[in-house]
Every structure is written in C-alpha cells, then in structure tokens.
Input
Amino acid sequence: MNIIPQSALQADKLKAYLETVKAKLMAKPSGSGELVRDLSPSTDLGFATEVWDNTGTLSANDWTNDISHELDEDEEIVIIGVFNLTDDPQVTAVRFRLGSTGATTLAIFNLERLYAEEEVVAYFDEKDVIYYPKKQYVYIDYYSKSSVTAGLEKIGLIGFIRKPYGEEISKPISF
Output
C-alpha cells in the first residue's frame, strides 16, 4: 500500500485525482438525486464532534480500534488519504477493516515515511483507495508507539461520502 505526500503532487494532478475518485463513486449503480461531499467525522462516522482526532485512548505498541461505525443503507464512502496535525505524532500506521466484526483487513498504511519527510498530509495511490459500500461496517485502527489519551492525536481521514439528497442536505436551489 502506497502513500503519496501531498507535496509530491502538483496542484493540477491532485485536482484531477480528486475529481476521478468522485466520478467513480458517483458512477456506482444506485438511485437518483445523490451527492458526493467531503467526509465528516461526526456526521458520517459517529464521532462526538466534527473534529478529527483519536476518539479513544490508543494503546502503546499495539493496534487500537478507534472508529467503528455502520453505514446506513443509502451511504457509501471512499477514503483517499490521511493527515496528522499533531506536533509529535505517535500513530505510526493506520489499518482499514470491514465486516460485521472487522474480520477483513482492506489495507494497512505505514505513516512513518510521511513524518520523516515532515509532511502532514498523504494521499493513497489510486489503486489503494479504500471503499466501504452501503450498510457496511467501517473499522479503522491505529498503531501507536506510545499510549495516547483520547483527543490528543490530531489524525484524520481524507475522503468522500455518497448519499441521497434528503434530511441532511437539500437539492441545490437555482436562482
């Protein structure tokens, strides 16, 4: 699994990459009247707030599940990158799992190269993008080199969610 530091991507290539991912997500068979928007921690993944950070205490030198969330029957998400705004990051890897018990590992990304290059944002290679279909269980684990209290590792995900217009967001109004 490859990560690409944001500084290694030219602005036009990054824009094209983002548009390609959104287009692929919208091209999946489904109903009509849907939108694709940026992934939000509370609205889409069940965090207590709309702030990207570790939701629970992370164990030292071990995998800790930090995000467990079941998508609704009309939601699907794609995760294309990760960022860590912590001054001294402790999380060295992120693991994406799915299934009702999280038994299937989709990918593991090592983040130490990102920190060695003094980067805070990395994108996944297009072939390594993480996709969670409708009504799927999302499990995201972090491997930390030391114990980290909830809320102190400012780590987040870059991604998109596809869902229908409705209660959360209404269709655009023309003027």
